[in-house]
Amino acid sequence: MTSRPIPEASVARLPVYLRALVDMAERGTHTVSSEALAAAAGVNSAKIRKDLSYLGSYGTRGVGYDVEYLIHQISRELGLTQDWAVTIVGLGNLGLALANYGGFAERGFRVAALLDVDDRKVGRQLVGLEVAHFDDVERVVKEEEISIAVLAVPGHVAQDVCDRLVAAGITSVLNFAPTVLQVPPGVSLRKVDLSIELQILSFYEQRKVAEESVRHGTARRRLEQVDPGA
Amino acid sequence: MTSRPIPEASVARLPVYLRALVDMAERGTHTVSSEALAAAAGVNSAKIRKDLSYLGSYGTRGVGYDVEYLIHQISRELGLTQDWAVTIVGLGNLGLALANYGGFAERGFRVAALLDVDDRKVGRQLVGLEVAHFDDVERVVKEEEISIAVLAVPGHVAQDVCDRLVAAGITSVLNFAPTVLQVPPGVSLRKVDLSIELQILSFYEQRKVAEESVRHGTARRRLEQVDPGA
DNA sequence: TCCTGTGAATTCGTTCACAGCC
DNA sequence: GGCTGTGAACGAATTCACAGGA
User: Fold this and answer.
1) How many angstroms separate the CA of residue B167 from the nearest CA in chain A?
2) Is the pTM of this model over 0.90?
3) pLDDT tens sequence for chain A (230 residues)
4) CA–C1' A194–C11 (A)
5) What is the secondary structure of B52-117 as a DSSP string?
6) Which of A184, A204, A208 is the closest to B223 by Cβ?
C-alpha cells in the first residue's frame, strides 16, 4: 500500500528493468518471467521478484509479468509519467556533450535551460536553447519550474554553484564535477565520476595482475604483503 | 591483519578519500583525523576508520593519519602507482568530450588509443593521437598493452563492441552506453548511465512532491523554498 | 505444472562503543 | 585527553526455498 519504503537498492535497479522491458516491448514480447527479465537486466530472478513485489503484485503465477503493464507501473513509480525540467550548468566539453546527447528527452527529461558564466557562451544558441548567464539562475529556475540540475562545472566552483542552485529552488542535483558536494536535507544528490570509476577498475585490475603472477610464481612482494602465517 | 578481502563498498570509497587527502596535502595539511577526513569525504568517521583498517594500521592513536603517507598507501592499494593504458571506443559527442577531458592523466590513466568505425573519423588527429579503426582493436590493444576500455558507443552495438574488446584482451570495461553488458568472469565491468541517474532522482523528486501535498502544500522545510507560481 | 510472492535464513555493510595506545 | 582500531550489535540487502494461485 502507500506505506512501503522501497529500499534504495531496489529503486536504483528499477530503471534498469524498465529499459529491458522497453526493449522487449519493442521486439514484440508481451509476457516475461522473472527469470527472463533477470537475464536481460543482469541480476538474478529472486531479486526481480522481490523488487517488483515492493511495487505491488503485478505478476501472474504460472505465467509471468505483462510487459506493457509492468512498464506502466515502473514508470509511474519512478515519476516518469510527468515531465521534469532539467538545467545543464557548465558548458565545457562535458556539458556540451550532455546538451547534445539525445538521452534526456527519451524519458521525460526536458532540457529547459543551459547556464554558464562565460560571456562568450552566454547568448549563443545551442540545441534550440539560448545559453543564459548563471547569474539569472533564480529567475530561470522559477520561470521554467526546473527541479533537477545537471552540474558539469569545474570542481573548484562546484560547491558554490550547487549552493546557488539550491537557493534558487533546485531539489535534485546530478553532479559530474569531481568534488564531494554537501546539500541540505530535502535535496537529492547523485554523482557520476569518471576518475573514481577508473580507480575502482584499477584496483581490481591490479588484483588480477597480482593473482596472475602468483600463479606464475613471479609474485612481486612490492604491492602485496602476503599473509605470513595462518 | 590476515590477507584482506577488502569489501567492495570500501574499495568504492577509497578514491573519494584519496581525492580529499590530495586536496588537503595541497593546502598544506600534514595530519588528519578520521573525523576531519570524514567531513571532507561526506561520510562518518567510523566508516573511515573501518575502511582504512582494511589497508593496515596506518594511523596514530591520539593523533590521526599522516596525509602524505595515507595518500601513498591508498594509491598503492588502488594500483595507481603504475600507469594504466586506456582506450576510448566511440568518438561521438560523449567520446570526444571524454577524450578532451583532462581527468585521465590526472592519476595515472594514459589514453593510449582512440577507436571508432567511422571512416570520417579514422586517421584524424585528436588530443595528440591518431584515431584508429576499430577493426584494428586486437593489434592496438596488444601494442599499447591496454587493459581498460571506455565504451562510448551507441547502445545497440555496445555488446558486440564489448565482446570484441574482451576477445582482444581487455580486462576492464567502463560502459557509458545505455545497455546492460554481459562479460565473462575475470573481466571487470562498471557502468555510468546518465538516464538511470536521472530516473533515480525522479523517483525521490516525486516522493517530495507527494509529501508536500500531504502536508497541504503549506509546511515548508527549512532551506527549501518552493514557489507554487503557475 | 509453472511461476509468482514472500517469510526465513544468510550475507554484506554500517554504526556503536570502548579498550588500547599516543 | 584525544583518536585509532576493532569486536559486537545492528540494519540493509540478497538469496533461499516453498506455499499457493493460475
Assistant:
1) 17
2) yes
3) 334 699 999 999 999 999 999 999 999 999 999 999 999 999 999 999 999 999 999 999 999 999 999 999 999 999 999 999 999 999 999 999 999 987 787 778 999 999 999 999 999 999 999 999 999 999 999 999 999 999 999 999 999 999 999 999 999 999 999 999 999 999 999 999 999 999 999 999 999 977 777 767 655 433 232 222 22
4) 30
5) HHHH---EETTTEEEHHHHHHHHHHHHTTTS-EEEEEE--SHHHHHHHH-GGGGGGTEEEEEEEES
6) A184
